[in-house]
Amino acid sequence: MEHTLDLVSALRLDAEFIAGGVKHKRRVLKKKKSGESLARIEEEPSIEIKKNLSIEIEEIWDIEPGSIIGQGSFGIVRFERRRPLMSDQTQTSHNQVRAVKEIRKLSTPDYMKEVQAVAKFSQAQYEHFFIQSYGWFENQESVFIAMEYCRLGDLARFRNREGPFPEKTTGLVARQVLEGIRFMHEVNFAHRDLKPGNILVVSTSPWLVKIADFGISKECHEGTQLQTQLGTTEYMAPELKGHFRSSHKISVYSISVDIWAIGVITMELLLTHPFLYSSDQEDYTLGTKPLRFDEPPGMDISESCQDFIKLLLTPNPIDRPTAAAAILHSWFADVALLLEQDNLLSVQDEAILSQRHDAAAPSPMPLLSWSTFGNLRLTDGSRSIRGNRSTRRSRSTRGSRNTQGTQSSTSTLVTDNTPLDTYQGRPFDPSLLVSSFRNLQLDKTKYFVLRSNNVTDMETSFAFGQWSAMKDANTRLDNGYRRSGGHVILFFSIVGSQRFCGVGRMTSPMDWDTTSEDWLPRDDGREYQGQFTIDWLCLNELPFAGIKNVPAYLGKGRRAIAVMDGTAICPESGYELLRAYSEEDRRSPCMLERRRIGDVAYS
């Protein structure tokens, strides 16, 4: 609790209310001059030095006309824009706008509890799952919480406007919400008001969402139960409505109410709200009415998805899964597979569109910079994996398309042993790479990202020069190896480390008859299958922070650092990662014979 209060204090903003807005004063670090070092702030962290290295700035936030973007019993949420200041060098596109929630003190006596929850979940480790706060301030009547602004709005808006979500999109959203709730539950917080209106959309390509509104969130320590009946009726679990009372005839509940709400949200995104009337939930809880997955007609919901929803909507909270357990459900593996297939289709489509454009109006290839990366083209698109069902079942035949995108009159036979077309985009410059990468045949190489659940397996791989993985990942790697003529580069990462930890070259096709016995068993009980050999090229770390904008595929929003285990990334992205590794190697040369992955502390 003391730590949370420190966070609350640190986020408090000095505020002066002015006509049409508010003014803040705060201290920021001075802009570092060329050659100047800030290392002495660590060596001698005195208040005087910190003052000398920082400056006080003023910022004025204007309340935009018609700026109310949310309203409820608590008060309002409004949109504010930061006024440009000529002398201010700290203003960027990321801090020019904000959403401000005003909470009336008289109508919300526990308003500071929301401030505490916002402060707690605005820490860096939670930024991908919760709306972040820029600080809070107050006057006699109200407390104001400044937050990041999501221009796309909330899930309710999308659902009402677009209709039912595709299953893969729903899976992406549900997984992210579960991840956020898992973090809350691990520190004994219940949100208690999860609903589409409290899940904000950050991006739709890829789908990224964040949880908002901690107005009635509650800290509940282990062994305690909650009694106050709060939340939105349509998303309340049965125990919040009087079912499963305690021996003292008191309605009690726990953090599992959030799991129920996620189940309702998932079904609502896919089909419709499962309990349109209060009697529907009553009948379902009593076991007299099952969930319906055939309304509206024509919807085809997978068995694994139905099982996931039924599991989360278990009436008795004692039998409901935890967030951590729900994340391991097989439905998410199915969703990941669908997304990987779509990514492959998207790369092919991108190539075909580029070729059509080139045939109509040739244009020079832009430089390889992230500001223009989306305009780069991958021209390995002479074959399309789209086709009828019989074509998809056969892995030995693919229809070919010419550069105009029309269907060829003949089909090209392609087997898994046939090399893919070589890269035909902007030439790569090997001179920018360190010596261990310069001999790679960059125009033929295929690049993959591999993820391990633990450090031990990485150490085993380094010691024995081999790798084992799940069958689906190994199948993709084996195909890449055979179809590229043995030119496959692998970027390794340990889940949760926030960095790549090595680069290796695949040196053999898959040995399906051999699987390493040294690999640690997986927590989910799934078995590894197959093994191949590796030549390690580099074991330096490459933090994700410096490469977070590298896309996995050209023109697509997914990042290379966020793909699933065993996923291919495009040649341009692979080359950029090699360049980033080369820069890191020049700063800290990699000594393979001395370096051990176990020497690195992973968080």
Give a description of the structure.
The protein has 603 residues and is of the alpha+beta class. It folds into 3 domains: 2-147, Phosphorylase Kinase, domain 1; 155-328, Transferase(Phosphotransferase) domain 1 (Transferase(Phosphotransferase), domain 1), CATH 1.10.510.10; 348-599, Roll (ph1033 like fold), CATH 3.10.590.10. The chain is 29% helix and 20% strand. The chain contains 16 helices and 20 strands. It has helices at 2-11, 40-43, 47-53, 111-120, 155-162, 167-186, 257-270, 278-285, 303-312, 323-327, 330-360, 389-393, 435-438, 455-464, 471-483, 571-587; strands at residues 14-18, 21-29, 54-72, 75-82, 97-104, 133-138, 142-147, 189-190, 199-204, 207-211, 218-219, 397-398, 412-413, 446-452, 466-468, 488-494, 499-506, 531-538, 542-543, 567-569. The protein is globular and about 70 Å long. The protein starts with a helix and ends in a 16-residue tail after the last helix.
Low-confidence stretches: 34-50, 221-229, 247-252, 344-421, 593-603
| CATH 4th-level superfamily of the largest domain | ph1033 like domains
Main pleated sheet: 7 strands, antiparallel
Strand order of the largest sheet: 1-2-3-4-5-7-6
Kindly list the characteristics that best describe this protein.
single chain; 29% helix; 603 residues; alpha+beta; 7-stranded antiparallel β-sheet; ph1033 like fold; Transferase(Phosphotransferase), domain 1; 7-stranded mixed β-sheet; Phosphorylase Kinase, domain 1
